[in-house]
Amino acid sequence: MNMKKRWRNTGKTFLSMMLTAAILAGCGASDKSVKTSDTGVGTESTDVVTLNILTTKISSNLSEYPDTHVMDAMADRIGVKINLIEADTDKYNVYIASGDGFDLVLTSTTYFDQLIQGGVVAPLDDMLESYGSDIAANIPETVAFSRDNWSNGTGSLYFLPCQIGVDSQGVYQSMGPITRWDYYAQMGYPETENLDEWLDMLGSMQKAHPETDSGLPVYGVSMFSDWGMWCYKFPLACYYGYNELSGAATGLFQPSTMEYSNLLEEDGLFWASMDYYFKANQKGILDPDAFVTNFDDYKAKASNGQLLTGPAVFAMGSFNSDHFNEAAGYEVIPTAWANHWGGTDCTAGWIDKCFGISSKSAYPQKAMEFLNYIYSYDGCRELYSGVEGVDYNTEDGTPSLTQESIDLYLENGTAWKESGLGFDRNIVGLGNYVIHPDDGKTLSLFMDPSVYENVLTTCQKDFSEYYGVKYPDEIFARYRETYGLSDQSNTDAFTVALMPAAPDDISRIEAGLSEYALSQASKIILAPDSAKFEALKEETMKEFDRMGIQEVMDWYGAEWEKAKKKAEKYS
Amino acid sequence: MIQIGRFRLKKERFILTLLAVPFILFVFAFSYVPLFGWILAFVNYKPGLNIWDCDFKGLFYFKLIFQDWNKMASVLKNTLAMSFLGLVCTPLPAIFAIFLSELPSARFKKVVQTLTTIPNFISWVIIYALAYALFSTEGVVNQLLLQAGVIETAGNILGNSRITWVFQTILNVWKVLGWNAIIYFAAIAGIDSELYDAASVDGAGRFHKILHITVPGISSTFFVLLLLQVSNMLSLGIDQYLAFYNSMVADKILVLDLYVYRLGLITQDYSYATAVGIFKSLVSIILLFSVNGISKKLRGESLV
Asked: Can you tell me whether residue A346 is helix, strand or coil?
């Protein structure tokens, strides 16, 4: 064999061995892992560490703009920066199944038992004593509740929910009967007595404004199709005073009475929604593309000013921020018939966003210090309101935002996101309306009523002037008193938190029911007349019965009553 | 010679065998090891729990597949209908490749080939956005037809359940035509050019050369791909149908993979989803061996 051939063969052998080695290395475990610990309180680096937080998709600004001066301030204070791993459900479950690759997990009550049983999360009791003084001092009821009910019967502390404290709508209502304030004003602020009149008003508005300035068609009512049943559940939930049970496909409750309700039952919210969209179609104001538009296209339409109403201000694209210096904007109109969103008692926090520390985290102590920081008043103030002396100043013990911070908030653009101010609420332990005991101001200074007048858009100023209030939300409080409307302040947070996740057989029936309801929705809404609407309703209800809706309602009804009884201990 | 146990291999053959090792490992790691996951279909699996700690459920999830037979029948009908339309369109990439190879300009051929291959790399989400811009009532197509007076009111193709099967098939053909033609370009390039020269000498025209040389030359490739496609009839994937799913076409677009996704994966019923996956694999194997047997009898050629 000549030299050239020998080299060629040696090369081949080397190449194949390298490939084999590369694949074997890829299949094996990484040797980069640092130490693994169960509760792992031990010596850890004093350098700044980055903690990976696993979460389902929350579309956080933190994912887009992770390096902010607020994050730097947190790093200076506790030596921690965070990196969000926003995963879709499948990817999230793969992480959960491996138990690796994250230091903290943001999870829901549905996962608690399996995470504890599988040893994916570590008990926090020992670390709470050593590094959790603020948690123990500020949220003792939640800690006790978590130990009692979220420990798979072990009595240990595993999970802490974010956003503990009373919620509020703040400056303005974000859900309710929304419309274009400028058009509404042009029509002479017509009062409506019910949903039918509201649709009539939208019809008149559409007639007056059939096209946008750029010639695009304007629609009274539209929807988006890629959020499943969302458009048949939430837009009218607020009007009728419902809220959903966390993680349930069809389970609802009425905060004002704390009664259970099912979305799909005969007089349920689904049918109220069907009626609403059916009437909109009959009046000729339903967007012909309502069933094929996805959320991004929906927001684009709203941003163009093509929609006259919508389910929430956040769904109306960039229209309000694009016109914040004009009297044009989407606003929730106070009415005598629509109930109000917000005001929920969140003593048990957001139960679908609860923190647990991974039992395989290399930095359990740092993870605990981070949790302690996000449940401390000063930590939350920093995350929501920024750095003292930079974003806000304190004089005579009273903090106030700088004009630059207020301007950023008002513009609500890229600069606001880059600033890191108004930290993602999913990652903060205490709610932004919680009062700081040292200065009596809300943790988020942007949510302090004294600031409201300074953060109003031109449209909101116009709105407030018309109703004779300092800021829009004030009028809704008056309407509640005058017309006996409700918000969600009667919610018993512990009852809601104690509702167990539906077992597999019930979930399966619910999934089938939702799937069928979704496929029927377009037929019902586009029915040519009321008689056909009623016939389709009857047909659909019969199929719901065949599929087992009663079984679902019985299960939820029984568990709801049990939860209410159990919650008495904490109320 | 190299001795490994009872086997004696020439050094060169040993090196060649060694070269195959990474790929054998690859197939083993990504095609056989995941079969271990089939165990999920027999237990009530919850992410985070050790498989051995999950409740054993036997064939429960397999029975569940056929529990709501009305729904499953409708889903299978959609799946088979669109698969059948896909099978009908199987010759298109071959025809496209043949015609394109006949073009005299090499540069033009490359441009067309590139342009037709690009859609394969566009995600279905983007394609939906394009389809919405084109076919919604405000879309370009409706506006042009309205302006030209061809239609009086804008149509809603994306929400028209009567044309869902055909529309989805057309979209899929548009997306994969260029990509699927690549293998036929390779097959055509492999045909001995002397055959064409000989045919020209015998007075064959372009059409005759296609019919008697090119088509027979790529027919074995065509039938191999056809057999594989038949065996995959139940596996249409999720992406396309998820992107185009809406209430108006729900009854026609719900294919098996999407049904499993919506009822199994969204509710995290992984055991059920795995059982359906096993069911699909079994059907695929049966279909593969059936069409393979038919091909063997009719054409004397087969895959296995």
From this structure: coil
Tell me the one-letter amino acid at B266. I
More confident residue, A326 or A275: A275
Total count of domains within chain A: 2
CATH number at residue A378: 3.40.190.10
Distance of CA B162 to the CA centre of its chain: 23
Q: Do B18 and A518 touch (CB under 8 A)?
A: no
Task: Classify residue A430 by its DSSP letter.
Answer: B
Q: Is the pLDDT of residue A30 over 60?
A: no
Interface membership of A102 toward B (CB under 8 Å): no
For residue A134 the two structure tokens come to: 């603020």
Domain termination site, one of A447, A475, A499:
A447
Whether ipTM tops 0.90, in short, is no
Confidence of residue A21 (pLDDT cuts 50, 70, 90): very low
Of A162-176, A298-312, A320-334, the range with the highest mean pLDDT is A298-312
Contacts of B247 in chain A (CB under 8 A): 225, 291, 518-522
Measured between CA atoms, the residue of chain B closest to residue A117 is B49
Sign of CA dihedral A398, A404, A407, A413: negative
How many domains does chain B divide into?
1
Phi, psi (deg, nearest 5) at residue A213: -60, -30
Domain end, chosen from A426, A447, A468, is at A447
Domain contains B233: yes
Round to whole Å and give the CA distance between B210 and B198.
13
CA distances from B106 to A331, B102, B206 (A): 61, 10, 17
In which domain, by residue range, is A406 found?
Answer: 49-166+350-447
Does residue A108 sit at the B interface (CB-CB below 8 Å)? no
Range of the domain at B151: 65-299
Is there a domain that residue A198 lies in?
A: yes
Give the residue among A62, A74, A66 at the shortest CA–CA distance from A376: A74
If you average pLDDT over every residue of chain A, what do you get?
Answer: 90
